[in-house]
Please model this.
Amino acid sequence: MNEVEILRKLAAAAARERVPGVDVVGEVIRTIGVTGDDVYRPLAWVAGFSLAAALPMVVLAYNNLEALTDPLQEMFFAFAWMTL
Model:
């Protein structure tokens, strides 16, 4: 029997075999001692700080976008400072 035939028989036997399902999530959670919402609390803090840092950048970006898309606005602001 040549090697190719042996490999085909082995592949067919492996395809027929049922693989048992393994669920280790419960055991891992019990081992590290984390329950319920405690898993997501650090992520909530990170999200809150990210929002606090991003909000001023969004406001500044909006103001700069308005200044870039309306060139007359910049000209009138410059004239207003000259007349004072």
